[in-house]
Amino acid sequence: MNKAILILTLPVVLMACGKEAAQPAEAERPASTIVVGAEAADRGNVYSGEVRARYETVLGFRIGGKIVERLVDTGAVVRKGQVLARLDAADTGLQESAANAQYRLAEEELKRYLELRDKGFVSESALDAKETALKAAAAQAGLARNQAAYTSLLSDRDGVVSAALAEVGQVVSAGQPVVRVAQQGEREVTFSVPESRFSSFRVGMPAEIELNATDSNVQSTVTGHVREISPAADPASRTYPVRVSFDAPNAKVALGMTARVRLKESAKNNAQKNSGYLIPLTAIFQQGDKAAVWIVASDRSVSLRPVEVAAFRDDGALIASGIAAGERIVSAGVHKLSAGEKIRIIENGKPL
To answer: Which of 3, 111, 151, 302 has its CA 20 to 30 A from that of 314?
Structure first.
């Protein structure tokens, strides 16, 4: 009897054991991570900019009209006084002809009155009126002549066309930008700084300029200094334009070349204010009133480590102590982890 029960229950026990053995190990949780980089005092003072000419002029017609000819394209080398574009001159030509006709008429009238005055037929006051009319007609003729000349847009300097801002057939108003001309010679790097860092800039501050140049004749890193800081913010971006001049100008530096500018002195002056490592706000794990981060070990296990937060900023949390450059931390999903848990590392949206 007992032997029969044992034989009947044995398959059930084996089946249960098989189910337990077939259960897979718990999958590792994917977690976004970052590697702690350079100190925020250094990173916060590197700005991306563009190489521009120190002296640039945005040229436009002094009168409105329809563009019938544009004689230059972007990149064209131009000379002072060279014609860059023309407007339809039909109306101004007619106005000039009418003004010249009025001038000739006033001139003839004055001659006739001079003859009549000599014969005693007109008074001196009548002659004075004709002289005044001639002067007015001469002024109108000069104005019409100038208006006709304004239909040609001339370059105000030797340089290169850095932008063509209007096309043939376009109707433009007086002063509307048509061509931008950059003077050959001195170059600068222009960039913008946010309101939060504007107060740390001053004219003359030394800078290191890193150029993305492929020409072997252009140094990849050169020195410069802050030449100009705009006192007014751009109304759209709410940032302040800054211009940095090269200490040793190089004609090989091309207009439009991208550059990275590092303001060393600014970083030094703000070392205490910005000292630490900048990490995403989502990397902070709050334990009551204390902050911590998840440190990822070489075996992908995580451990919680307290950190000292120097400041919470718009661009992240500034960590004064508790982490070091080169350490990997979890940057998102920090409240889903537990100590000792192994994770699947995700960086820049891709698993490692």
So the answer is: 302
Residue 263 and residue 201 in contact, taking contact as beta carbons nearer than 8 Å: yes
Computed over every residue of the chain, the mean pLDDT equals 84
What single letter denotes the amino acid at residue 12?
Answer: V
Amino acid at 1: M
Q: Look at residues 197, 202, 207, 206 and name the one whose alpha carbon lies nearest to residue 274.
A: 197
pLDDT band at 256 (very low <50, low <70, confident <90, very high): confident
Is residue 99 within 8 Å of 139, Cβ to Cβ?
no
Cα distance between residue 284 and residue 332, in whole Å: 9
107 vs 135: CA distance, rounded Å: 9
Instruction: Using DSSP, state whether 56 is helix, strand or coil.
Output: strand
What is the per-residue pLDDT for 122?
86
Q: Can you name the CATH fold of 57-88+151-184?
A: OB fold (Dihydrolipoamide Acetyltransferase, E2P) (2.40.50)
- Residue 304: which H helix or E strand, with range? strand 302-313
Long-range own/partner contacts, residues 163-167 (CB < 8 A, 24 or more apart):
163/74, 164/70, 164/72, 164/73, 164/74, 165/58, 166/67, 166/70, 166/85, 167/67, 167/70
Cα distances from 113 to residues 125, 134, 136, in angstroms, run: 11, 12, 17
**Overall CATH class of domain 29-40+274-351:** mainly beta
Q: Which one of 1.10.287.470, 3.10.20.590, 1.20.1250.20, 3.40.50.300 gives the CATH number of domain 90-148?
A: 1.10.287.470
Residue 7 has pLDDT above 60, yes or no: no
The second-level CATH assignment, the architecture, of 46-54+185-269 is Beta Barrel (2.40)
Q: Which of 47, 97, 70 is nearest to 197 (CA)?
A: 47
